[in-house]
Amino acid sequence: MKSIYAAFAALLLLAxxxxxxxxxxPQSQGQIDLTFAPLVKAAAPAVVNIYTRTVIKERxxxxxxxxxxxxxxxxxxxxxxxxKERVQGSLGSGVIVRTDGLIVTNNHVIEGADQIRVVLNDKxxxxxxxxxxxxxxxxxxLKVETKGEALPVLTLxxxxxxxxxxxxxxxxNPFGVGQTVTSGIVSGVARTNTGIGDFGYFIQTDAAINPGxxxxxxxxxxxxxxxxxxxxxxKTGGSVGIGFAIPxxxxxxxxxxxxxxxxxxxxxxxxxxxxxxxxxxQSLGLARPVGVVVQQLYADGPAENxxxxxxxxxxxxxxxxxxxxxxxxxxxxxxxxxxxxxxxxIRKGAAIDLPxxxxxxxxxxxxxxxxxxxxxxxxGALIVNLSPxxxxxxxxxxxxxxxxxxxxxxxxxDRIGFEAGxxxxxxxxxxxxxxxxxxxxxxxxxxxxxxxVNRGGKVxxxxxx
Length: 465
Description:
Elements: H1 2-14, H2 29-32, H3 37-43, E1 47-60, H4 68-74, E2 82-98, E3 102-105, H5 107-110, E4 115-119, E5 125-134, E6 139-144, E7 167-172, E8 180-191, E9 202-205, E10 217-220, E11 225-232, E12 243-247, H6 248-258, E13 271-275, H7 278-284, E14 292-297, H8 302-306, E15 313-317, E16 320-321, H9 325-333, E17 340-347, E18 350-357, E19 370-371, E20 381-385, H10 388-394, E21 402-407, H11 412-416, E22 423-427, E23 430-431, H12 435-444, E24 449-455, E25 458-464
Antiparallel strand pairs: 1-2, 1-4, 2-3, 3-6, 4-5, 5-6, 7-8, 7-10, 8-9, 9-12, 10-11, 11-12, 13-14, 14-15, 15-16, 15-17, 17-18, 19-20, 20-21, 22-23, 22-24, 24-25
């Protein structure tokens, strides 16, 4: 490692002042032999290839089986034809993070797999089992049986230490060609609003990342893991130099909580708001738009009990800057429930710090899941009572009320245009207070219907006959 840094330092010394071409020749063997080889040799053994097999049951049928006239004579028993099994394979990458065979990868690499096989850099193969899967974070933990043999590991680095411009290497198995190493720089940190999942906060890099790299390693020049490559922006499916990795601090939180079969619980403080825009920043006299302006507080929740008030601007957690609501969620998610965090605030132009308790989101009232059916507009919608816990699970920006959790594809509710996440506010002149009341109301109310929903803060009314 020292030779790499020495070579970089030597190269940098050549850059400050213009020189003639004949004066710019390498001055030492170190400048000529600049290489990442020692770094790769140390890190590559802990990066694995992951192969999955999924058995998919399909039904072969003639299009006539969906014709009502045809079914008059032959009935519904032939509608879907005979089942046929098809094996689907996929590939990805993973990183060994514990000598006893604990491996971290992306959830989308192993989701739904019936068999998972891990192949090490030295060609050894292991069957793996899933011990944790976080769909919203797109992280999963696998375990292989090593029979007491210690496996090579990558140590996690604090991803908050990264700066734009830092050199990084991506190691994975793109397109199944075998373990491949690419280099680049950190193009951005704290990337949010990327449209990747519903819990997005990423490191951006121009190191080439392609299909198969998912779940692999993004390492810094000290040989430590700083991210798990998970997605790219591309119109062709190949790398165009815009790749995203889940920061190692989020990975560390999942490993700590679920590495031994536990469950990650994301802390909740009972405060919600919106990102500070340029207009808001100017109206408040801020030098630049940054942070989250608090708009809503949960009664007797941690934030309210800590003394936080509507209009306060959360600009940091434990001294780490927060740029928007997604950034605040990330900062809190990397911290353990049961401890306190220091929220860095701006209140009326003054900076203040307030300690706030980190608790699990309250789970009352009970969800009361109810699948609506029959000839009515919400038929096919699964409705639930909201609590902070249910709202967090469904990623709905409200703590109370009745919401649509899921909608059956092709159902009446789906065809009308209702969506998962809709809050059912009112039916005709009736305010909705619980899932049970909503179900009873739909059973008892004949057409016409006027159904008002709140969709992402916008009110929409469906008038139906």
